[in-house]
Amino acid sequence: MSHFPSFEVIPAVDVQDGEVVQLVGGERGTGKRYGDPVEAAERWTEAGAETLHLVDLDGAFEGERVNADAIEAVVESVGGDGVGLQLGGGIRTAEGARELLELGLDRVILGTAAVETPEIVADIDETHPGSVVVSLDAKDGEVVVSGWTEGTGLDPAEAATRYEELGAGAILFTNVDVEGQLEGIDRDAVESVVAAVDVPVIASGGVASVDDVVALRDAGAAAVVVGTALYEGQFTLREAQAAADGN
User: Fold this and answer.
1) Residue 14 catalytic?
2) Model confidence over 89-110: pLDDT tens digits?
3) Phi and psi dihedrals of 70, rounded to 5?
């Protein structure tokens, strides 16, 4: 089953110290704050979001889940409304991932853990098929890990193929060069990852306009995660989804 029967625009709810923030270029401390995570989640759901992209930013940097309470509050608030919830940040073990899936999340996003111990992907897939999204962050055309600080020498398309073979249900592909800067997307990079795998590719990073959303759809992405542009009011969720649906 495909997670995304049609192209989806997915709002990001990135949580740091219990508040919604958007970082610039993945740098800690560059975040602009946008209030309470539950309020943000409810706002996007009311605006028509079918999926929400939750990130525990402190978890991503510290390697453990720091904002568990805030995330759980979001799951309790909107998780039962037929809204798909995916969470990344600080998930390092299969056991930790399963706990989250049992809490009511639909998909878990693994980044550093998947790169360092790829068997975790297969392990989670065994009990919760299709629920693992492997997050590949690219900078200058190579996959980077640990909060974007370490290069791996891996080509994103090759890495995507490897994780698909291990059981990844989807690939989240983020171009860190353009993250949070509203400078537009790197369509070619997305196309090469899409061409490499059969599972859905969720694109993220640099979306500044409705045209970027449409370009990512045309590049073959199954969905796009949008953060800064939505919070800054560059366009509304409905405008982006309507354009992507060709209306």
Assistant:
1) yes
2) 888 889 989 999 998 999 999 9
3) -65, -40
* Nearest CA-CA partner of 87 in 30, 185, 152, 172: 172
Q: What is the DSSP string of 121-190?
A: HHHHHHHSTT-EEEEEEEETTEEEETTTTEE----HHHHHHHHHHHT-SEEEEEEGGGTTTT----HHHH
Confidence (pLDDT) at 187: 85
Instruction: Check: CB of residue 26 under 8 Å from CB of residue 176.
Output: yes
Task: State the first-to-last Cα distance of the chain, in angstroms, to the nearest integer.
Answer: 26
Mean pLDDT across the chain: 86
Provide the pLDDT confidence category of residue 1 given band limits of 50, 70 and 90.
Answer: very low
Length of the chain: 247
Among residues 14, 123, 186, 212, which one is catalytic? Answer: 14
In angstroms, the CA 22 to CA 57 distance is 10
Distance separating alpha carbons of residues 92 and 207, to the nearest angstrom: 28
Could you give all domains of the chain from N- to C-terminal order, each with its CATH number? 8-236 (3.20.20.70)
Read off the pTM: 0.89
Q: Annotated catalytic residue: which of 56, 58, 106, 137?
A: 137
Indicate the residue type of 206.
Answer: G
Handedness of CA 208, 210, 212, 216 (dihedral sign): positive
Record the tokens describing residue 233, joined without a space: 């009011």
